[in-house]
Design a protein that fits this description.
Length: 302
C-alpha cells in the first residue's frame, strides 16, 4: 500500500471526480485511472465503481480514503519531531484566503515572520462557505469566514482556529435617510434594497436572518463578490450593503452604521488539514495570524 494511492483516494473523496482531481493536481485523468488500477491490483479489491458518468468509492475505497488522513498525520508528526531536533521552524507555508481577510491579516503576518525561516506562498480566492474545506487539499492554511459559529460549513474534520472576530456594518449612501441613525436595527431595514453577495456566501446569512425577523424578503439589486465594487454600487444608490469593519476605508458618499438585533460579526477562521497543521511552521503561522487578528480587534474593543 503506497501513500500516494491513499492520497489519491482522499482527493477523489473530497473533490468528487477524477477530472477535478486531475485539474487540481496537474495530472491527466488517464494517469489517475492507471494509479487506481495499480492500487486495486496490489490490494486485490475494487476501490472505485461507476456511478452514472462519474466514479464513486467502494466501501473499501472509502475506508482507505478515510485512513489517508491518519497515515499522512503520522508522517507529518514524525517530520515535526525531526524539525524540533534541527532547530526553529523553517520552510514554505502556503496560504489561500478570502480577499477581505487577506487585506486585514497578511501584511501584519509578513511583519511577524520577517526574521524567521518561514516563507509564505499566497493566493486569494472568493468562495462559498462550503468550498473552504475542499480547498485545504491545495494549501497549508485556508483563511475563510463564517457568521453562524466558529467552524465554517464542512470544516468539522479540520483543525480550525478563530484568528479574528470582526463586526459587519451596514453601508449606506451618505444622503440616505437611515444615515441619520447612529445604529440600525432590523426594524429600520424593513423594505430596503441591498447590494448583496452570491447565495451561499457568509454575508448573505445576515440578510436571511433579517428576512426571518421581518417576515418578508429583502430585495437584492445585485450580487457581487468584491467589496470595492459593492462600495461603488452603494454610493451609486443601488442599495445598502454589508461590509467588514476592519478593511472598509473612508469613501466619499459612503457611510457605515453598526447593526444590532441580529448577529452581525464574522469569525475569521484559519483551517488546516491535521497532517499539514502538524508541521511546526504551519502552527507558528496560525499563531501569528491570531496575534495579528487580536491587534486588529484591540482598537474596536478599547
Amino acid at each position: 500500500m503506497e501513500i500516494r494511492h491513499l492520497e489519491l483516494l482522499r482527493e477523489l473523496a473530497v473533490r468528487g471526480t477524477l477530472a477535478e482531481v486531475a485539474a487540481a493536481t496537474y495530472r491527466t485523468p488517464s494517469a489517475l485511472s492507471q494509479q487506481i488500477r495499480t492500487a486495486e491490483r496490489d490490494l486485490g479489491v475494487k476501490l472505485v465503481e461507476p456511478d452514472g458518468r462519474r466514479l464513486r468509492l467502494t466501501a473499501a475505497g472509502q475506508v482507505l480514503a478515510d485512513g489517508a488522513d491518519e497515515v499522512c498525520l503520522a508522517m507529518a508528526e514524525l517530520r515535526a519531531r525531526m524539525d524540533r531536533i534541527t532547530g526553529d521552524p523553517v520552510g514554505q507555508v502556503t496560504i489561500g484566503s478570502v480577499p477581505s481577510a487577506a487585506e486585514a491579516l497578511l501584511p501584519g503576518l509578513y511583519g511577524r515572520l520577517k526574521h524567521t525561516g518561514i516563507t509564505l506562498d499566497l493566493a486569494d480566492f472568493d468562495l462559498a462557505e462550503a468550498d473552504y474545506a475542499p480547498r485545504t487539499l491545495d494549501v497549508d492554511i485556508v483563511i475563510g469566514h463564517t457568521l453562524t459559529g466558529d467552524v465554517p460549513l464542512g470544516a468539522d474534520r479540520l483543525v480550525t482556529t478563530v484568528v479574528a472576530r470582526e463586526p459587519i456594518d451596514v453601508a449606506l449612501p451618505a444622503d440616505h435617510p437611515l444615515a441619520a441613525h447612529d445604529v440600525l436595527s432590523p426594524a429600520d431595514l424593513v423594505g430596503t434594497t441591498w447590494v448583496s453577495v452570491p447565495e451561499g456566501y457568509p454575508f448573505d446569512s445576515i440578510l436571511v436572518a433579517l428576512e426571518r425577523l421581518a417576515g418578508q424578503r429583502l430585495e437584492r439589486s445585485a450580487r457581487v463578490r468584491d467589496n470595492r465594487v459593492v462600495e461603488s454600487l452603494v454610493v451609486a444608490g443601488l442599495g445598502l450593503a454589508l461590509l467588514p469593519r476592519f478593511t472598509t476605508r473612508p469613501r466619499p458618499g459612503l457611510v457605515t452604521r453598526p447593526l444590532t438585533g441580529v448577529r452581525a460579526d464574522r469569525a475569521v477562521v484559519a483551517m488546516c488539514r491535521p497532517d499539514r497543521y502538524a508541521r511546526a511552521a504551519v502552527k507558528v503561522t496560525v499563531d501569528c495570524l491570531a496575534d495579528v487578528g487580536g491587534d486588529l480587534a484591540s482598537p474596536a474593543t478599547a
